[in-house]
Predict the 3D structure of the following.
Amino acid sequence: MPITAGIDIGASATKAAVIQGEVPARAELIGAAVLRSGVDFALSARQGFELALAEAGLEAQRVERIFSCGYGRGNVDFAQETRTEIAAHAAAAFRHFPRALTVLDIGGQDNKVIKLDDQGRRISFKMNRKCAAGTGAFLEEMALRLNVGLQEFDGLARSARGEVTMGSFCTVFSATEVLAHIRKGVALPDLVKGLFRSVLKRALEMDNLDQTVVMTGGVAAHNPYLLEMLSEMIGRPALTPPRPQLAGAEGAALLAMQSLLPRCDQSHPRP
Amino acid sequence: MTQAPPPINATKHMKKLMADHFLGLDRAAREGSPKVAWCTSVGPAELLLSMGFAVYYPENHGALLGATRMATEVIPVANAAGYSPDICSYLTADIGAFLKGVTPLTAAYGIKSIPKADVLVFNTNQCRDVADWFGFYARHWNVPLAGVCSHRGLGEVKRHHIDDVVSQFKDMIPVLEKVSGVKFDIDRLRETVRLSKECTVRWRKVLEYAALSPTPMTFFDHTIHMAPAVVLRGTQEALDYYDLLLAELEQRAAEGVAAAPGERYRLYWDGMPVWGRLRMLSETLGGLGAAVVASTYCNSWIFEAFDAADPFESMARAYLELFIVRDDDYKERYIRQWARRFGVQGIIFHDAKTCPNNSNNRYAMPERLAQDLGVPTLTINGDLNDLRCFSDEQARTNMEAFAEQLGEQAA
């Protein structure tokens, strides 16, 4: 059965996925890796690929095609083709939830809202403006201000008994607000829950989250409570694939697998 | 690797015309004759030309500052002098460059500084910023400032709008006569308006060649070749130039030359160019097989209304009928018409941070047009001149994703 791989070089993390299957719709994830992107994208791509191969127990030669995506997609010299992370996240989301979707990807540096029809074709997409508000970078900055590990955020938000309201769009202004709340003695969990709310508000401002909402990306992966909060805000369950941070890499691998199909099948809706 | 489109030969001639234009202005400013009038790009240039002024267009200088990427270095100088980074970056770049004592004209033509104005004439049909911009120089040089305070957001251009602008034009004449020492002559104005109309007819023909598929010229070429329509309209040189360009376009069309080789997608560009990133945008879109075939911006120098028989009224009408002066209903109809006529499959809106009046995405127009036309739209955040407001990577990802989307829809 064909084996393909996807490498997603994001602003914060590099993700690699190796999949195997006759067709994308029935492909199985057999190897994956997540590591920091660092300053050498080519190196992190290679390392990620090797780690994913090791998990799959495969030699690189077994992989028939590799696609890359993400900001560093052009730095993956062993990938045959590149796709945008928008195409890749859409492919992965539709693979897991094959219906009309609104995909919300909250990444380290930017957010995307991608709308797909019931055949998986893209209707529209929006990226956030050139601003870190509402992205993983915003949470990273706030974690530094609060002197709390980012990995503690989800538990803290979940344990909140109240919630502060963050009023500003801007990461810098938000940091000032955080300091004001600290001075007032606001409980840390209430503050972190307020930060989560701020992230989700920024996403809801980007586009209407109609259809079935699927959340992907590293921020969703590390903060499952965000998904619960989003569900509450949109009034219905928001979904997430099994490994949301891998959605870009998995999607790139799915698109690589699709490209192996006879040409007449490639135009058929994705996975 | 994407094949480069063949160069447009007329460009060499245009460069010489532009050199002559700036060198002439420099000479006039140094020698004190003819007098130098500054004029906004869609201002009453015909009136000034008819009275013998050498006419200088600061927006053109603003675009040069952007295209040479000097703008981003000099804008902070204007910011520090009190001009906000949120206002027109033509203004901040131009004033910043002046305060710093630099100009791209030095490297291009060996000219030390922009030509000192003897009079400044604005038209706020585009925005209020032009009045503030010219006001800076009027105070600095202690020279007269005149202008038209235009109506804006117009649906229909009505009689009282035209009468008002005509009276404002006429009010300027005593000031202009005093500065130039030349008596106003209606026949000279008629002749200048006739030349401007002839220029408009030719420029429109140039733009209409892009209705062909493949297009022999794209928006990115238009942003270069529009220069004579902006700074030389009202002169015979502009007509001669466009005759030359049109002959070349005819030949390119006959030979099926594609300005974006492998043209697969045809796009409309709304909003200002990103002057400092024209090449990047052109190469990225071209590499994706996308040709930008029509734009609101380059169409802004089509002045249908010019009529030598009635120069004042037709000038008023021409400068009021422009896209930027109109309301959103008109703008939507306009874009729909051009998009259909040019067979576009997608529309790119440039949301220019410092140019709200020429960023038409902010009141849900993309959503309405996408629904009406059945084509997707993309908004790119950026700016005409201030590259601090533009992200190459975000723009590139957006354009690639847009091409993917167009490809999926075509499949």
